[in-house]
């Protein structure tokens, strides 16, 4: 077993989970030690965020910010400086890399004897606990945590709404489908991500066809699953087949009336088809407005096309100023200043 590593002036004992510099132990433990150990095993290879999440944090669901914070804590424990790194450097847009080559050290006879004793003790404990452990495994074997974590990460990236994160989600869904080609959740996730690649990020239109095939495959085996019809509608929507897409959205809503995001998509197509009353009715029926992007704009558009210009203008104005306040833009401060100046009574010149 590779019990010891040397990294510059650091000595890392894996068996004891101990990091020393000049014979003095550093406070590196728990997740920080696991992160350091994994990086040591990779040598000076650049390790990306997804790999770290999968091998250090899984099955916990975390994001890149969590990794960044843990790296910061590890650096603090090692006395490293991110601006002039000695042990661990960040590689922009890629991940992290050790600054110097990793050296392996052979364990001393005393260490080997100590480790043998540890393993004997661990074996005794394992024999005592094996019955309970086997029972727990039998109860939970239907939901492997690593697989669940992989899909959770894919769903997380897909939900961010950025091109790069959508591509990352596609890679994770593909990875899961290589392991389990019939995983329905992964099929639908990949279908939605392919549709987003076309509709939101100007990708090749052929991916909308692949998205439709994935959704149809799930519909064929689970015809009562609302999410499958929603994914089918999205794929058809991205192909410009508005009528077919609307029919799929309506089927999804029949199966799951609480699907607000689907209702918002259907409302948009109602408006495109000139069914303005249905569009407005669908938008106003949304129960959780935060789940539908641009819902206030859609409602304002419906009102405008129906001839309620004043009501539409009021909603447009409210949405605009709400957005400005939310981002706390200097523009908002300027607009308030101008508004206040305009409201003041002007003095007459003498």
Automatic annotation (TrEMBL):
Q: Which InterPro entries match?
A: OmpR/PhoB-type_DNA-bd, Sig_transdc_resp-reg_C-effctor, TPR-like_helical_dom_sf, TPR_rpt, WH-like_DNA-bd_sf
Quote the DNA-binding region ranges, renumbered to this chain.
2-100
Its GO biological process terms? phosphorelay signal transduction system; regulation of DNA-templated transcription
The reply on keyword Transmembrane helix is yes
Q: What is the superkingdom listed in this entry's lineage?
A: Bacteria
Q: Is the Transmembrane keyword given for this protein?
A: yes
Show me the TPR repeat boundaries: 226-259
Which PROSITE patterns has this protein been placed in? OMPR_PHOB, TPR
Q: Name one GO molecular function term.
A: DNA binding
Name assigned to this protein: Winged helix-turn-helix domain-containing protein
Biological classification of the source: Bacteria, Pseudomonadati, Pseudomonadota, Gammaproteobacteria, Lysobacterales
């Amino acid at each position: 077993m590779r019990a010891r590593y040397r990294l510059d002036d650091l000595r890392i004992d894996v068996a004891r989970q101990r990091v020393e510099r000049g014979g003095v132990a550093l406070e590196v433990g728990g997740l920080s030690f696991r992160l350091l150990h994994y990086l040591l095993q990779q040598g000076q290879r650049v390790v990306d965020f997804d790999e770290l999440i999968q091998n250090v944090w899984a099955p916990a669901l975390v994001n890149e910010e969590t990794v960044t914070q843990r790296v910061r804590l590890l650096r603090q424990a090692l006395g490293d400086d991110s601006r002039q790194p000695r042990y661990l450097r960040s590689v922009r847009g890629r991940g992290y890399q050790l600054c110097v080559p990793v050296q392996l050290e052979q364990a001393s006879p005393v260490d080997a004897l100590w480790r043998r004793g540890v393993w004997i003790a661990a074996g005794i404990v394992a024999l005592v606990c094996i019955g309970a452990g086997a029972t727990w495994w039998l109860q939970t074997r239907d939901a492997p945590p690593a697989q669940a974590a992989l899909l959770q990460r894919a769903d997380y990236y897909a939900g961010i709404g950025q091109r790069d994160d959508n591509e990352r989600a596609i890679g994770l869904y593909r990875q899961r489908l290589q392991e389990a080609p019939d995983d329905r959740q992964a099929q639908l996730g990949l279908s939605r991500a392919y549709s987003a690649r076309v509709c939101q990020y100007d990708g090749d239109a052929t991916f909308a066809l692949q998205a439709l095939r994935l959704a149809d495959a799930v519909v064929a085996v689970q015809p009562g699953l609302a999410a499958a019809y929603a994914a089918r509608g999205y794929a058809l929507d991205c192909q410009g087949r508005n009528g077919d897409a609307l029919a799929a959205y309506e089927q999804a809503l029949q199966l799951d009336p609480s699907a607000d995001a689907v209702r918002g998509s259907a409302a948009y197509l109602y408006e495109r088809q000139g069914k303005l009353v249905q569009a407005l009715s669908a938008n106003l029926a949304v129960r959780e407005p935060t789940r539908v992007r641009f819902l206030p704009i859609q409602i304002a558009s419906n009102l405008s096309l129906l001839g309620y210009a004043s009501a539409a203008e009021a909603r447009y104005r409210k949405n605009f100023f709400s957005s400005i306040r939310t981002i706390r833009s200097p523009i908002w401060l300027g607009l308030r200043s101008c508004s206040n100046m305009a409201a003041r009574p002007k003095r007459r010149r003498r």
